[in-house]
Specification:
The structure holds 2 protein chains of 2 kinds. Chain A is an alpha/beta fold. Chain A has 2 domains: 22-92, Alpha-Beta Plaits (2-Layer Sandwich); 138-488, TIM Barrel (Alpha-Beta Barrel), CATH 3.20.20. In chain A, 27% of the residues lie in helices and 13% in strands. Chain A is built from 13 helices and 17 strands. In chain A, strands 6-16-15-13-12-9-8-7 form an 8-stranded parallel sheet. A two-stranded antiparallel sheet of chain A has the order 1-2. Chain A is globular, with a radius of gyration of 24 Å. By secondary structure, chain B is an alpha/beta fold. Chain B folds into 2 domains: 22-82, Alpha-Beta Plaits (2-Layer Sandwich); 144-453, Aldolase class I (TIM Barrel). Chain B has helices spanning 35-39, 68-72, 84-88, 96-108, 197-210, 245-250, 266-276, 291-301, 325-338, 356-365, 374-378, 403-428, 446-457; strands spanning 22-26, 78-82, 113-114, 130-132, 155-157, 180-182, 186-189, 214-217, 232-236, 253-257, 280-286, 305-309, 346-350, 369-372, 383-385, 391-393, 443-445. The N and C termini of chain B lie far apart (55 Å). Classes of the chains: A alpha/beta, B alpha/beta. Chains A and B meet through helix 8, strand 14, helix 9, helix 10 and strand 17 of A and helix 2, strand 2, strand 3, helix 10 and helix 12 of B.
Chain lengths: 501, 458
């Protein structure tokens, strides 16, 4: 259920055009009669009063082949048969195997409207990667317990240790990943924090310091401590409810952090207490941590500095991630946050993104089981990230054993990231999301960005509640570890009719 | 401290077009307002130099796919698509993105870095069906890539002893065989294509500078290469040995084509080579269905170095439905381990090695080192087509490009690969490339983990 602070408002694209899936071609047979402009309810065709000719069709407004079943379809209505409909070749340049063009488009619609897309022609829940989440489907019971949507809770507690520290509960089992000031722009960072406050959840500073603009949202910000210790001060640790140790990042496990010199602008350098224009590297690993005992010492240090804070430990997903998770529990962590190999990044060697460490789907399963066997699963919160793209990925991750997830790319896509992958160099993001360039970082305002994020979180929450209703559950907590509610299209061969999705 | 190994890359662009991914076309409803040139941060859009009233054709070579011009053009006059040259080049193995990346690495020698997460399929065939592992917190011998100065990529070629034997007085009585050290686990294998002499010479010079070798057919080794004979491995059949004594005399390693007859009198072959030169011998075997059996027999017969070759996509030769190099290496390695002779022989593998990750992965599967051919040519702008059959297109004028430029591009490419191998080794917490060999505990194989995780659950 959403908190009362959530207010859904339309937040349309900041660009004049969107990326079209379809293409309407007008042949020379057109006599500029204007029939198409009159029939199309979506505004694809326009005939300006006083002009001789029709304007070029606005492709992105077209709903595509499903229109052929409607009685207002321009292709059928054109008296000269001058119009034809096809897939737009431009669509093939958007997205990739993991984030398909449909998935990006779907996320844009969610960020604009606050609801899952009504369009039937886009598959926004499943990517094209051919593995992991993309091969998992839900199995819905034929006769679920009747549950009203209003009775369904999506809250999860983050402190399950009963150790007298803060009882932090988030209203939706999703929070924002660490993106440093420097890797992303200030409006991006502040809107993430503002949205986290609206949704009663969290966002994370990443390793680039704690800009003053985040202060109003301190109760919903996680201070990250990574190996470079950029921006880590006593007051930034004392200010927050959760402190996160970042040991490694899924996109570049074992390689530390990189901010290339071009993105280290004056304001970034100031925040990080570094010299403008130099490349900033966070080394790997923490040189103060070479054993699980050292790790405990680390956690004790933070607990001493902030007696009320929860401790989150962010690690990537090597083969022995399960052991690391258990070790973190015994060292006193409240949250074990595992970041899978296919996670996002502002800059990483391609070789690392593709090859190092395992995808999150395996790691969740492994860690959940190991914690359970150890008898400590109920005393720690398991958070998964690195490849959670959609509300369905979220629900699947929880079924596999996570309590909740952290997202990064999905938030940026809500702000109209196209995943072109050029965040790392030069002036940074051409779309102003992951850039601190003086011109580019000013392409949108916080208000618009906050609304887009709030809308997207809402659309996910709506989808999650719908799924829980189909499962007959009152709380998302009941979903944790329910692998029996999933099937895998390679391994499962049931014939019952009662599941789809 | 021993001298550290350094490669010196240098930006070396070629004046030619390679593959571009995107194509932008300006429609005739463009009103030449210039909005696109204002919003594009990569300078793809400019006004025409001849007539500043109109916009020039978009320079799609620099397009980075940010969609700003597309979305902000007031008339929606710009259309973008995947370039035909991009879509049609390469194939299922040599993907066009991979070709572009190799070309770029040869240009600047940099590790390819990008933003946003991985964008490819979850898994694939061959080397794409495995991940390398990393170590999280508790391995004290590691410094990630920031200790890269201390990571060694050198490997040895040659026979090793299973154990040392000592006499009653404690004196060493084993005769320790000679080995040859290469600074990185990559040899150059002269491609079968008819290459111009500048490319051949550049391969030899680059190998010399990198402290590695070029394997080349003995017939190609002319007097002009004599200066570099220490870095050339002549490749020949057993029958050709007598006819090329002068070449063999200077070589540190020779490569002899496998023939079933070799096994009958392997000692005789070694004796024959020994009379001419002190060179180590590679036996080169095309991978077939039972190549692991042959490899074991050769190892027992005393072969120092075995070079297993596959086709250009890493498939068993003459058997398109056969195994991929990854599985062949694992089979050979495990068979030799089973026969307790793995440590005594060196395994080189080649065919389908098309990226730095393949080198590290081939080693994790059990190879000591790799040999590469096509990536060096791709770095020079050669295009590969896989359909209907393997076909290479050489850029016009390649034969006229000065050798130093070609040499530098090859050095750049290997420098980028070397750095990437260091990245992977750093993440794995492995400081010695020799230790990568067969270290399957640092590898995650898709078939195994998927069955172990999802296979058990569903």
């Amino acid at each position: 259920m959403k908190p009362s602070t959530v207010n859904i408002k339309r937040a349309p694209s900041r660009f004049k055009h969107q990326v079209p899936k379809y293409k309407i071609t007008r042949s020379d047979d057109c006599i500029n009669c204007g029939t198409c402009a009159k029939t199309c309810p979506y505004g694809v065709h326009e005939r300006v009063e006083g002009h001789n000719k029709m304007k070029r069709p606005i492709d992105y407004k077209c709903i595509g082949f499903e229109c052929q079943n409607k009685d207002f379809c321009c292709v059928a209505k054109c008296p000269r048969k001058a119009l034809s409909l096809s897939l737009n070749p431009m669509y093939a340049t958007l997205g990739d195997y993991r984030w398909t063009a449909d998935m990006i488009t779907g996320t844009w619609i969610m960020a604009e409207t606050g609801l899952p897309p009504e369009r039937k022609d886009i598959e926004y829940n499943i990517g094209n990667s051919g593995g992991g989440f993309d091969k998992l489907r839900f199995k819905f019971p034929a006769h679920p317990k009747k549950v009203n949507k209003s009775e369904i809770s999506t809250e999860i507690p983050l402190n399950r240790r009963n150790d007298g520290r803060a009882d932090v509960v988030i209203s939706t089992p999703v929070y924002g990943g660490g993106m440093s000031f420097g890797s992303v722009s200030l409006p991006t960072m502040v809107s993430k924090a503002h949205n986290a406050t609206i949704w009663n959840t969290f966002t994370c500073t990443g390793e680039g310091g704690y800009p003053d603009n985040l202060m109003p949202y301190s109760d919903h910000v996680i201070t990250q401590i990574a190996t470079g210790l950029f921006g880590v001060r006593e007051e930034t640790i004392q200010r927050v409810k959760i402190v996160e140790f970042k040991y490694a990042q899924g996109a570049k496990p074992g390689l530390g952090g990189h901010l290339l010199g071009e993105k280290n602008t004056e304001s970034v350098a100031k925040m990080r207490e570094a010299v403008k224009g130099t490349s900033l590297f966070s080394p790997f690993p923490f040189h103060s941590v070479y054993s699980i005992e050292d790790h405990k010492k680390h956690i004790d240090w933070i607990k001493e500095v902030n007696p009320n804070a929860l401790i989150s430990v962010k690690v990537s997903t090597p083969n022995d991630v399960d052991m690391v998770a258990v070790g973190s529990y015994y060292a006193g962590a409240h949250i074990i946050h595992i970041d899978g190999g296919y996670g996002g990044t502002g800059a990483a060697p391609d070789i690392a993104k593709k090859n190092i460490a395992m995808p999150i789907e395996y790691a969740i399963t492994k860690v959940h089981k190991f914690l359970k066997d150890e008898g400590v699963r109920d005393a720690i919160t398991l958070i998964a990230s690195g490849g959670i793209r959609t509300a369905h990925d979220l629900a699947k991750a929880i079924c596999l054993g996570a309590d909740g997830v952290v997202i990064g790319t999905a938030e940026l896509v809500s702000l109209e990231c196209v995943r072109c992958g050029n965040c790392e160099s030069g002036r940074g993001c051409a779309r102003g999301i992951a850039s601190t360039d003086s011109e580019l970082a000013d392409l949108f305002n916080e208000e618009w960005a906050t609304q887009r994020l709030t809308n997207m979180y809402n659309a996910w929450n709506v989808q999650l509640v719908e799924l829980l209703q189909k499962f007959g559950m009152h709380s998302v907590k009941e979903l944790v570890g329910r692998t029996d509610l999933l099937k895998h299209i390679d391994y499962s061969h049931e014939t019952e009719l009662d599941h789809n999705g | 401290m021993p001298k550290k190994y350094h490669i010196h890359p240098k930006a070396t662009p070629l004046e030619m077009d390679y593959i571009y991914k995107f194509k932008i076309v300006r429609g005739d409803n463009c009103i030449n307002c210039g909005k696109c040139s204002k919003v594009c941060i990569y300078l793809a859009h400019k006004r025409s130099e001849a007539d500043p009233r109109i916009m020039a054709d978009p320079n799609t070579a620099v397009c980075r796919n940010c969609f700003r011009c597309i979305q902000e053009c007031p008339r929606g006059a710009l259309e973008k698509s995947l370039d035909k040259g991009f879509v049609n080049t390469g194939g299922a193995y040599w993907k066009p993105d991979m070709l572009i990346s190799l070309y770029k690495q040869a240009e600047d020698g940099n590790v390819p870095v990008s933003g946003a997460g991985y964008r490819g399929p979850f898994t694939g065939t061959g080397f794409d069906s495995m991940w390398t592992d990393m170590s999280e917190i508790v391995r004290p011998t590691r410094d990630g890539i920031h200790g890269r100065e201390y990571i060694s990529t050198s490997v040895d070629l040659g026979r090793k002893l299973n154990h040392l034997a000592f006499g009653a007085e404690g004196q060493l009585i084993s005769k320790v065989p000679d080995t040859v050290d290469v600074s990185l686990p990559i040899l150059f294998d002269m491609p079968a294509e008819n290459l111009s002499s500048n490319i051949k010479l550049a391969m030899i010079k680059a190998a010399t500078e990198l402290n590695t070798f070029v394997i080349m057919p003995v017939a190609d080794i002319t007097n002009e290469f004599e200066k570099h004979s220490g870095n050339i491995i002549p490749r020949l059949t057993a029958a050709e040995i007598d006819g090329h004594k002068d070449v063999l005399k200077n070589a540190r390693i020779v490569s002899v084509e496998y023939d079933a007859a070799l096994l009958k009198d392997f000692a005789g072959l070694k004796e024959k080579i020994k009379k001419i030169s002190s060179a180590l011998t590679i036996i080169r075997i095309p991978a077939s269905k039972d190549v692991e059996q042959t490899a074991v027999k050769l190892a027992h017969a005393g072969a120092e170095i075995i070079h297993i070759t596959t086709d250009y996509r890493g498939q068993e030769l003459n058997n398109p439905s056969g195994r991929h190099l990854k599985d062949i290496i694992r089979a050979v390695h495990l068979k030799l381990v089973e026969d307790q002779i793995r440590d005594e022989t060196t395994i080189i593998v080649s065919g389908g090695i098309g990226a730095a990750e393949h080198v590290a992965k081939a080693m994790l599967c059990g190879a000591d080192l790799t040999a590469i051919d096509l990536p060096l040519l791709i770095g020079l702008g050669v295009r590969i087509f896989e359909e209907q059959e393997k076909y290479l297109v050489f850029p016009d004028g390649l034969a006229k490009i000065p050798t130093p430029i070609i040499t530098q591009r090859m050095i750049n490419l290997i420098s980028a690969w070397h750095s990437q191998i260091l990245e992977m080794m750093g993440a794995m917490g492995i400081r010695e490339a020799r230790r990568l060999r067969g270290e399957s505990g640092r590898a995650i194989f898709f078939e195994e983990i998927d069955k172990d995780t999802f296979g058990k659950l569903f």
